[in-house]
Write a structure and sequence with these properties.
The structure holds three protein chains of three kinds. Chain A is mainly beta. Chain A has one domain: Folate-binding fold. Chain A has one helix and six strands. Chain A has a four-stranded antiparallel beta sheet with strand order 3-4-5-6, with no helix packed on it. Chain A is globular. Chain B is of the alpha/beta class. The termini of chain B are far apart. In chain B, α3 runs parallel beside α8 and α4 crosses α11. The relative contact order of chain C is 0.07. In chain C, 21% of the residues lie in helices and 29% in strands. Chain C folds into six domains: 104 residues, Ubiquitin-like (UB roll) (Roll); 205 residues, FAD/NAD(P)-binding domain; 127 residues, 3-Layer(bba) Sandwich (FAD/NAD(P)-binding domain), CATH 3.50.50.60; 92 residues, Arc Repressor Mutant, subunit A, CATH 1.10.10.1100; 182 residues, Gyrase A, domain 2 (2-Layer Sandwich); 95 residues, Aminomethyltransferase beta-barrel domains (Elongation Factor Tu (Ef-tu), domain 3), CATH 2.40.30. In chain C, α5 packs parallel to α11, α7 runs parallel beside α8 and α12 crosses α13. The chains are: A mainly beta, B alpha/beta, C alpha+beta. Chains in contact: A-B, A-C, B-C. At the B-C interface, α2, α6, α8, α10 and β17 of B face β6, α3, α4, α12 and α13 of C.
Chain lengths: 91, 428, 1001
C-alpha cells in the first residue's frame, strides 16, 4: 500500500484515497459538436500507460480534494504530487 | 497404407494415457518427448500471435486446426501461461445475462466439456457447479432475471432459495441474522473449475504438434506498418515479417496498442487472489458472492482458492494493496466462519485489462491485419477455448464470427455496449 | 531405545515444570520451553506424518518454521482445531493434543502408503496424461484424488478465539533477533530512532544464543555469553519495542509490513478464553533492517527423506537448546564446516557420533581436527548414496566421490545409525527482501542468492546478506549500520572475534548415486514428494522456465513454500539445462513468509463489525412496532409492518390501501440529502441534471434525473430551491455517496470556476413523509401554524416552519401520487415528530408503511426506481421521460451520449406497463418477455422490472422494459416461465390517476 502525499494534508495511507483514472483528459467544451468517434475518444479511450502515468486521486477519507499524481505504473513509485489545474511536470 | 502410417507416426505426438505412463515407467520416464519445442523465430510467418497465455495459444491451435494456417507463431515475452492464465481462480461458467455474453461464454463452455479429450491433455475440467449468492432484494431480482434469461438461452441455470443454497453447500452461513444474509442464489451445474496451467500446456502441445512455433522469452518491441496495414513485428529476437498480427496480451494490450498508434478503452488494474493451506475436501462447489465480494472453491490439491477484487488504480506491478485482501477475507469469514483458523499460504496479483462495460473485445482494428483480443477483465479464463476459437476465425477470415460480432471496438463509438456491469446498478 | 533422550539440562528448558500432552492418543511429557517436536524427540518419536503424494513416513526434519514434514492437526474435532501446524513451532502446553495427518488408519500403518509402490507410474504431472478415459469419468477419478489430497482437516465450527489489528509507526524496524538483529536494534535505539525488534521465536538471540563453543568468541567471551549481556541491555532501552513470537508475514512497497503476533497459542486451553489469540501488526517503518538469518540446506540423495534424517543444525539445536538427543547413533553428512560444530557439541554432551561424511576432500579446519581428535571417523570426499529403514533410518551407505563430483567410485560402505544430520550449507532468507521488490544477485563462490538492489529504505545484514560466519557478521554489520542510519560511530566496532569456521564448501546440487536416477528417490520438495528426477523429467518434456518446472512438479508449493528445496531445484535445473544460476533467476517468493491465519487478517471485522448498519433516527420506533427490515446499501429500512401474524402480502395490501384511502406515513430519512450553495448553484444544477433549473422559483421543488456521461440514468430525486443561491438535493438511498462524489469530482476538476459548495446532510435530518387524502388534516394538526391551502402551499413547493420551537422544512412532494407532505427535521427530533404524526393521525387511521408498499404505490403511478427499473443501460428517452430532457440546454452530463447511433435507435428497450390476462396473476420480477415463444432461438424482448398486486386497482400490475415497447401499447406478449406461459398486454406505465387528480385531493 502506497503512502500518498496529499497536497493539502500531507503524507497519508493509500487507504484514505481513491483513484480517479488518467488525468488531463479535459471534458470537451462543446460536446454536441463532436463526432461519435471524437466523443468515444473522450469517453472511453485511455492511454493506460506502463510507465509514468499522470492520474487523478481524491483524498476521499480526508480533505475530499482531488489532485494529480505522477506515478510509475510499472512499480507503483509515486514521483510527484500536484494540485488540480497545475500543468503536468516533466519527469 | 504404410506410408500413411509412417506420416501419422512422425507428425503425431505420442498419445498420453495410463498405458503410455506404464510403458514409460519401464524406462524410468526417460523417453518422454518434449510437450513443445523451443524454436528460434523464422523470418516470416502467415500470422503471429502476440501473447502466449491460454487465449493466445488456443488462438494458434484453432488457426492451425480449423483454418489450416500452420506457418504461424506465438511470441511470448516470458514463459507461456505465466500471466493471468496461471494466476486466476479457474472459475468456468456461462450464466451471463446478455444474449451476446451468454452466447460467447457458453460457446466456450461447450468446448471445455470435451477439451481434455480433444487435446489429449487432462485439463481437469470439473463440473462441480457454480453458485452465485443474493444478499439483498435487488440481488434476488437480478439473479432471477439472469436465471430466466439463461433458461431461454439454453443455459442450465436454476434459482435456489436459501434452504436449497444451504443444502448444496452446507458450510455457508445462512443465518438470517448475519450482516449480509443469504436470500437465495443461482446454480449452474455445468459450470466449475479447471487446472489453469494445463490449459496453456495442453494448447501449446496441441499447437506445436501441428507445426506452430511457440517462441518464449521473445518480447514485442514494435509493430511495423505499411500504410494502414501490418508489415511485421520488432521483437527482442529480431524482426518477424507477417501480414497478420493477433494481439492477446491481456494486461499489456494497451502497451502493444500504443506501439501501433492505437488507443483502447482499457484500464489495467491489479487483481489479487490467494490460497489457503491444503486440507481434506470441505467445499465441493464454487460459490461466488458479488455483494460482499468473496468467491471460493477448493482445488484438487485441497487448497481453498479465493479471489479478491481489483484495486481502483492502473498498475503493471502485479501487486495489489493489502486492504483488498483483507476485505475479501472479511467477506469469506462472514459467509464461512469455520474458516477463521485456516491459514493463507500464498497470495499473488495479476494485471487485468478492464473494459468500461466489463465485456471483452475480439475485434479487427482500423489497421488492416491487426487484431485485438482483450478486455477480459477479471473473468477471461473461463472463455479461453471459445476466445481462441473465435479469434482464430476473426483472424483467418478477416471478419468476426457471429458469436463475437457484438464484441467489436466500434461499440464504444455507437454506444451498443454489452454492459455486464448493468445488473450492479445503484440501489434505490 | 530409551524413553528419555533428555541428555543434559538446558537453561532454556524449565525441568521443574512438567507438561503432559497427547500425540496420536498417547500421553507424553515434556517441559516448559519445549516445542512439540523437541518433546516428541525426547520421547524417541521421529515418525510424525505422511507425505502428500506417496504417503511415505516422515519425521521431524528441522527446528524451525521451515519444517516441511512434521506437521500435525491440533485438537481434532474441537472448535479450536487447526490443521497443518508445524510441530517445530508449537510450544507445548498442558492439554495439548496433536495428531498425525494424511494417513489412515494411522501414521504407523497407512493404507495410502501403497502410492509409494505405485510411484513408478506416478511421475511429475502424471495426472495431465491420464484419467481422460472414458471422458465422463474424470469427476469420479477426481473424487478419489481429492480425498487423498489435502493434508489436515478444516475446522467445522466457528472459531471461539478473537483477533485484532494494531498499527505501528516506527523509525526503524529490525526483523530477526539473532546476533545481527540485536546489534542493529541496539545501535538504532541508542541513536534515538524509535525502533521495533521482531522475532518469530519465543526467545531472543537466534542461533548464537545456544552456541557454547570455545571456537566462537567475542571479546574473549563465548559468543552466547556475550550476546546474552547485550540482550539484557537492550531490554532496558525505552525507545525500543521488542516483540517475540511474532512473524513478519509480508513486506509490501513503501515499507509497509504485516506481522503476526502470537499471544495465546502457547497457553493451556483453559487460559485462552477472552484473550486475543493473534494480533496483526500493520507496520509502517521509515527504515527496515532485514536480519532474517539463513536456512540450512539439505543434501539431495536417494531416500533422503526418512524419519531420523534431520538438518545438522536442527540436531545441534535440539541438543544445545532443548537438551534432547535426536538419536543414539548419529551420522553427519556435510559439504561444509557446519556439521562439525554439531559433531563437537554432541560429543561434548556424550551423544555418540558414529561418523562424519564430508563431500569435501582434505580441508584445513580446526573444527575437523577437533572432531578427528575425538576419534570420530571422518570420511573425506564421500557421499551418502542411499539410506534404509522404513519408519526410522537404520543405515546409510556411502561411496567415494569422483574428483568432478559427478560420479561415485569404489565400493560401498555401510554405517548403522538411527539419526542422520545433513548440512548442505546455508541459504540467506531473502524472502521478505524480494517481496518488497528487491532484486537478488547470485554469488558464484558459495552458490547463494544475496540481496542486491532494493526500492525502499531498507538494508539486509548478517547471514541473510550472505555473511555467514561470526567474524564476517561482526565486521560487516557495524559498518553497514553506520551508513544506513547515518551515524558517526558504533559500539560494535573493533570487537575481537574468534571463529574457527572454515568457509570452504563443495556444492553439488544432486549427489551422484550408484543407481540410474530413474530408480532413485532423491527428494527436493519433501512435503509434495517432488524428486530430482521429477525436475529432470519436466526439463525433458520442454518445461524450461523455473516457474514451469515448479508448477509441473509442484516443487516449492507445499505449506513450507520450498524454504528448504527451492535452491536445489534451481541448481538441478541449471545443471541439467546447462544454464547459469544467475540468469535463471528465482521463483517469486510470495507473501506470507509463513502461513497467516485468516482470523488474524480479518481481526475484529467479523460478525456485526463486518460492515456497519446505518439506522434512521426513527429506527427504534420501527423495531418497537414489529417492522420487518430490508437492507438497502448500508441502511436498515422498514420493509413492512405485519400486524397480528399477517404475512408480507397481507401487510403490504393493507398498508397500500390505507395510504390511498386515509393516510400513510413513511420514514424516508435514508434518502441522500446534499446541501448546495453558491452563486453558481443554479448553473451547476443545469449541468448535472437533464432538465433546466435556472427558472425554478425560490420555494419550489423539481424532480431531476441525473445521467452518467455515457447517457445512462444514474440517479434521481427532488431538489428544492431554498433560496436564490441555496438548494437541497435529494438522491436515492443507495446512490447518496456516489452522487456526492461525482458532483464533487465535476466541481473540482471540470468546473473549478463555479462558485458552488456541497455538503452531505443526509444524517442531519429525519425525513417523514405523510401521504393520502387525509394527510392535509394530519399535518394541519402537527403544524397548526402552517397554511396548507393549495394556493399558498401547492404541490412541488416548500415551506420553512416550526413544530413547537423546532425548525423544520416541509415539502409538498409525492412519490405515491397522493397528496402528501414531507417533513424534514433535525435528526434527534425525528422520532418524536413521527410519534406526533402517529398520534394526530390516529383518528384518520394513519398507517405506517415500509419500502415494499412505497414500491407498490409508486408503481401504480408508473414512477421508476433507479436501480430496479433501470440497470445502467437505460436512457431517459428509453424510460419515456423525454419531457425531462431539456432540448434547449447547451450541455449537461451525458447529453452528447444520447445522440450516438445506438442511443437514438427506435427499438431500444423502453419502459412500459404490463397487465396480465388473469388479473390475479402476479408476475415474477426478473421474468423475461417474448413475443413469439416458438421462435428459435427465443428472442427476449425485455424483462419485468417491478410487479405487484394492486389492492387499489384490484389487479396485478407490472412495469417492464421491452424492445420497441413504446409503440406496442395494447399488444399481447408472453412471459415464459419454467412450467407455464403467462399472457400479458403492454400498457401505459401509469396505471392510476393519470390526470394527477389525487395530488390535490
Amino acid at each position: 500500500m502506497f503512502l500518498i502525499d496529499c497536497p493539502y494534508c500531507g503524507e497519508r495511507e493509500q487507504s484514505e484515497f481513491k483513484a480517479g483514472g488518467e488525468a488531463h483528459i479535459v471534458r470537451p467544451k462543446q460536446p454536441t459538436e463532436l463526432s461519435d468517434d471524437e466523443w468515444a475518444e473522450y469517453l472511453f479511450m485511455r492511454k493506460n500507460i506502463k510507465g509514468i502515468q499522470f492520474e487523478r486521486w481524491i483524498h476521499i477519507h480526508g480533505c475530499r480534494k482531488w489532485f494529480n499524481v505522477a506515478r510509475d505504473t510499472s512499480n507503483d513509485v509515486i514521483k510527484v504530487v500536484y494540485k488540480m489545474g497545475e500543468k503536468p511536470p516533466t519527469i | 497404407m504404410n506410408i500413411y502410417k509412417v506420416i501419422i507416426q512422425n507428425s503425431m505426438k505420442k498419445k498420453y494415457s495410463i498405458f503410455s505412463l506404464i510403458k514409460n515407467a519401464f524406462s524410468y520416464h526417460e523417453n518422454w518427448e518434449k510437450a513443445w519445442k523451443d524454436p528460434e523465430p523464422k523470418k516470416e510467418y502467415d500470422a503471429v500471435i502476440v501473447g502466449g497465455g491460454g487465449h493466445g495459444l488456443a488462438t494458434a491451435y484453432y488457426l492451425a486446426k480449423k483454418h489450416n494456417m500452420k506457418n504461424i507463431a506465438v511470441v511470448e515475452k516470458g514463459w507461456i501461461g505465466g500471466g493471468n492464465t496461471g494466476r486466476n481462480t479457474t472459475i468456468i461458467r456461462s450464466n451471463y445475462l446478455w444474449d451476446a455474453s451468454a452466447g460467447l461464454y457458453d460457446h466456450a463452455l461447450k468446448i471445455w466439456e470435451g477439451l481434455s479429450q480433444e487435446l489429449n491433455y487432462n485439463v481437469m475440467f470439473s463440473q462441480r457447479g457454480v453458485m452465485n449468492l443474493a444478499h439483498n432484494l435487488q440481488d434476488v431480482r437480478d439473479l432471477k432475471r439472469r436465471t430466466h434469461a439463461n433458461r431461454l438461452n439454453g443455459i442450465d441455470a436454476i434459482y435456489l432459495n436459501t434452504e436449497e443454497v444451504k443444502k448444496f453447500c452446507p458450510i455457508i452461513n445462512t443465518s438470517p441474522n448475519i450482516r449480509y444474509p443469504v436470500l437465495g442464489g443461482t446454480l449452474q451445474k455445468r459450470a466449475g473449475t479447471a487446472r489453469h496451467d494445463a490449459v496453456a500446456w495442453g494448447y501449446a502441445r496441441g499447437a506445436d504438434e501441428m507445426g506452430v512455433d511457440i517462441i518464449q522469452n521473445c518480447e514485442v518491441k514494435g509493430i511495423k506498418r505499411n500504410g494502414d496495414s501490418v508489415a511485421g513485428i520488432e521483437t527482442t529476437k529480431g524482426f518477424i515479417k507477417t501480414k497478420k498480427v493477433g494481439v492477446v496480451a491481456a494486461g499489456h494490450s494497451s502497451v502493444i496498442a500504443n506501439m501501433a498508434g492505437l488507443r483502447l478503452p482499457l484500464e489495467s488494474k491489479p487483481l489479487q487472489a490467494l490460497v489457503s493451506e491444503p486440507v481434506k475436501p470441505i467445499i465441493d462447489t464454487v460459490v461466488m458472492s458479488n455483494a460482499v465480494h468473496a468467491y471460493v472453491s477448493q482445488s484438487d490439491k485441497g487448497e481453498l482458492v479465493i479471489g479478491a477484487g481489483t484495486d481502483d488504480y492502473v498498475s503493471y506491478s502485479q501487486k495489489g494493496s493489502h486492504d483488498i485482501v483483507e476485505g475479501t477475507l472479511n467477506a469469506i469469514l462472514e459467509l464461512y466462519p469455520i474458516f477463521s483458523r485456516m491459514r493463507m499460504l500464498r497470495q499473488w496479483g495479476g494485471i487485468v485489462d478492464i473494459c468500461p462495460d466489463a465485456s471483452p473485445i475480439i475485434s479487427k482494428t482500423t489497421i488492416s491485419g491487426l487484431y485485438f483480443n482483450c478486455g477480459w477483465g477479471t473473468g477471461g479464463f473461463k472463455a479461453t477455448p471459445g476466445s481462441g476459437d473465435l479469434f482464430a476465425h476473426t483472424i483467418a477470415n478477416d471478419e468476426p464470427h457471429k458469436i463475437n460480432a457484438a464484441f467489436n471496438l466500434n461499440r464504444f463509438v455507437s454506444g451498443e455496449l454489452v454492459d455486464e456491469h448493468g445488473a450492479a446498478a445503484v440501489a434505490h | 531405545m530409551t524413553n528419555n533422550l533428555r541428555v543434559k539440562s538446558s537453561k532454556f528448558i524449565d525441568e521443574t515444570y512438567k507438561i503432559s500432552f497427547k500425540f496420536n492418543g498417547t500421553t507424553y511429557y515434556g517441559y516448559k520451553g519445549d516445542t512439540l517436536a523437541s518433546a516428541l524427540l525426547a520421547s524417541g518419536i521421529h515418525l510424525v506424518g505422511r507425505s502428500f503424494k506417496y504417503h511415505r513416513p516422515r519425521g521431524i526434519m528441522t527446528a524451525g518454521s521451515e519444517e516441511p514434514n512434521a506437521i500435525v492437526q491440533l485438537h481434532i474435532n474441537t472448535s479450536r482445531t487447526e490443521p497443518n501446524v508445524r510441530a517445530t513451532e508449537i510450544e507445548i502446553y498442558e492439554g495439548l493434543e496433536a495428531s498425525s495427518q494424511n494417513c489412515w488408519p494411522s501414521v504407523n500403518f497407512d493404507i495410502g502408503g501403497i502410492n509409494n509402490f505405485l510411484s513408478p507410474i506416478l511421475p511429475a504431472g502424471f495426472y495431465y496424461k491420464t484419467f481422460m478415459w472414458p471422458a465422463s469419468f474424470w469427476e469420479k477419478y477426481e473424487y478419489f484424488i481429492r480425498k487423498s489430497a489435502g493434508l489436515g482437516r478444516s475446522p467445522i465450527e466457528p472459531d471461539p478465539d478473537i483477533y485484532e489489528h494494531r498499527y505501528i509507526h516506527c523509525d526503524v524496524l529490525v526483523i530477526g533477533a539473532g546476533i545481527s538483529g540485536i546489534i542493529a536494534a541496539k545501535t538504532a535505539a541508542k541513536n534515538g530512532f524509535k525502533t521495533l525488534l521482531i522475532d518469530e521465536k519465543s526467545y531472543l538471540g537466534g542461533s548464537t544464543i545456544y552456541q557454547n563453543s570455545e571456537h566462537f568468541k567475542i571479546n574473549n567471551q563465548i559468543s552466547s555469553s556475550w550476546l546474552e549481556k547485550e540482550i539484557n541491555e537492550i531490554k532496558k532501552i525505552k525507545n525500543l519495542e521488542i516483540k517475540t513470537r511474532t512473524s513478519v508475514a509480508a513486506f509490501h512497497g513503501y515499507n509497509f509490513l504485516l506481522a503476526r503476533e502470537n499471544l495465546t497459542d502457547h497457553l493451556p486451553l483453559n487460559q485462552r478464553n477472552n484473550k486475543i489469540r493473534q494480533r496483526l501488526l500493520k507496520i509502517r517503518s521509515k527504515k527496515v533492517i532485514n536480519a532474517t538469518g539463513s536456512l540450512e540446506r539439505p543434501l539431495i540423495f536417494d531416500n533422503n527423506d526418512r524419519p531420523g534424517i534431520l538438518l545438522s543444525s536442527a540436531i545441534d539445536k535440539y541438543s544445545n537448546f532443548y537438551g534432547v538427543a535426536c538419536g543414539e547413533k548419529n551420522v553427519l553428512f556435510t559439504n561444509n564446516d557446519s556439521a562439525y560444530e554439531t559433531a563437537i557439541n554432541l560429543n561434548q554432551k556424550g551423544i555418540k557420533v558414529e561418523a562424519v561424511i564430508d563431500n569435501r576432500e582434505e580441508v584445513d579446519s580446526k573444527l575437523i581436527k577437533e572432531v578427528e581428535n575425538n576419534n570420530i571417523r571422518v570420511y573425506k570426499g564421500y557421499t551418502v548414496v542411499n539410506t534404509s529403514g522404513y519408519k526410522r533410518i537404520k543405515k546409510v551407505s556411502i561411496m567415494k566421490l569422483s574428483l568432478d563430483g559427478q560420479k561415485i567410485i569404489g565400493s560401498k560402505i555401510y554405517i548403522n545409525c538411527d539419526c542422520l544430520g545433513i548440512s548442505g550449507g546455508w541459504t540467506p532468507a531473502v524472502h521478505l527482501f524480494t517481496q518488497s521488490g528487491g532484486k537478488l544477485k547470485f554469488r558464484e563462490e558459495d552458490q547463494v542468492f544475496i540481496p542486491n538492489k532494493s526500492f525502499s529504505d531498507q538494508i539486509s545484514i548478517g547471514s541473510c546478506n550472505g555473511d555467514f560466519t561470526l567474524d564476517e557478521i561482526l565486521s560487516s554489520v557495524p559498518k553497514i549500520l553506520k551508513e544506513f542510519l547515518n551515524i558517526k560511530k558504533s559500539d560494535f566496532e573493533n570487537l575481537e572475534v574468534h571463529s574457527s569456521f572454515n568457509k570452504s564448501k563443495r556444492n553439488i546440487w544432486l549427489l551422484p548415486s550408484d543407481k540410474v536416477i530413474g530408480k532413485t528417490k532423491p527428494f527436493v520438495d519433501y512435503q509434495n514428494d517432488a524428486t530430482a528426477k521429477d525436475i529432470k523429467l519436466a526439463l525433458r518434456e520442454g518445461f524450461r522456465s523455473i516457474e514451469h518446472v515448479k508448477r509441473y512438479t509442484t516443487t516449492g508449493m507445499g505449506t513450507d513454500q520450498g524454504k528448504l528445496g527451492n535452491m536445489h531445484a534451481l541448481g538441478i535445473i541449471s545443471e541439467t539445462a546447462g544454464s547459469k544460476m544467475g540468469e535463471l533467476g528465482t521463483t517469486t517468493f510470495r507473501p506470507p513468509y509463513t502461513p497467516l491465519t485468516f482470523g488474524t487478517i480479518v481481526g475484529r471485522n467479523v460478525g456485526k463489525y463486518f460492515d456497519i448498519f446505518r439506522k434512521t433516527p426513527i429506527h427504534d420506533w420501527h423495531v418497537e412496532n414489529n417492522a420487518e427490515f430490508e437492507n438497502v446499501g448500508q441502511w436498515k429500512r422498514a420493509w413492512y409492518y405485519p400486524k397480528n401474524q399477517e404475512n408480507m402480502h397481507d401487510a403490504v395490501q393493507r398498508e397500500s390501501k390505507a395510504a390511498r384511502d386515509g393516510a400513510g406515513i413513511l420514514d424516508a430519512s435514508t434518502l441522500g440529502k446534499i446541501d448546495i450553495q453558491g452563486t453558481d448553484a443554479s448553473e451547476f444544477l443545469n449541468r448535472v441534471y437533464t432538465n433546466a433549473w435556472s427558472k425554478l422559483a425560490i420555494g419550489k421543488c423539481r424532480y431531476g434525473l441525473m445521467l452518467n456521461e455515457d447517457g445512462m440514468v444514474y440517479d434521481d430525486g427532488v431538489t428544492t430551491r431554498l433560496d436564490e443561491n441555496h438548494y437541497i438535493m435529494t438522491t436515492t438511498t443507495g446512490g447518496a455517496a456516489t452522487v456526492l462524489g461525482k458532483l464533487e469530482d465535476y466541481l473540482q476538476t471540470e468546473w473549478p470556476e463555479l462558485d458552488v459548495y456541497l455538503t452531505s446532510v443526509t444524517d442531519h435530518y429525519a425525513t417523514i413523509s405523510v401521504c393520502g387524502p387525509d394527510s392535509k388534516k394530519i399535518i394541519s394538526k402537527v403544524i397548526p401554524d402552517l397554511d396548507l391551502s393549495n394556493k399558498s402551499f401547492p404541490h412541488m413547493s416548500f415551506k420553512n416552519s416550526k413544530i413547537d420551537k423546532i425548525k423544520c422544512r416541509v415539502m409538498r412532494i409525492s412519490f405515491t401520487g397522493e397528496h402528501s407532505y414531507e417533513i424534514n427535521i433535525q435528526a434527534n427530533y425525528g422520532k418524536s415528530v413521527w410519534q406526533r404524526c402517529m398520534e394526530m393521525g390516529k383518528e384518520f387511521n394513519i398507517t405506517p408503511y415500509g419500502t415494499e408498499t412505497m414500491h407498490l404505490l409508486r408503481a401504480e403511478k408508473g414512477f421508476i426506481i433507479v436501480g430496479q427499473d433501470t440497470d445502467a443501460t437505460m436512457t431517459p428517452i428509453d424510460l419515456q421521460m423525454d419531457w425531462i430532457v431539456s432540448k434547449k440546454k447547451y450541455d449537461f452530463i451525458g447529453k452528447r451520449s444520447l445522440y450516438r447511433s445506438d442511443t437514438i435507435k427506435e427499438n431500444r428497450k423502453q419502459l412500459i406497463g404490463l397487465l396480465t390476462e388473469n388479473p390475479d396473476e402476479v408476475l415474477e420480477e426478473g421474468a423475461q418477455i417474448v413475443a413469439d415463444i416458438n421462435k428459435s432461438p427465443v428472442e427476449m424482448l425485455g424483462h419485468v422490472t417491478s410487479s405487484y398486486y394492486s389492492p387499489n386497482l384490484k389487479k396485478s400490475i407490472a412495469l417492464g422494459v421491452v424492445r420497441g415497447g413504446k409503440s406496442m401499447i395494447g399488444q399481447k406478449l408472453i412471459i415464459p416461465m419454467e412450467n407455464k406461459q403467462i399472457n400479458v398486454t403492454v400498457a401505459d406505465p401509469v396505471f392510476l390517476d393519470k390526470e394527477n387528480k389525487r395530488l390535490n385531493a
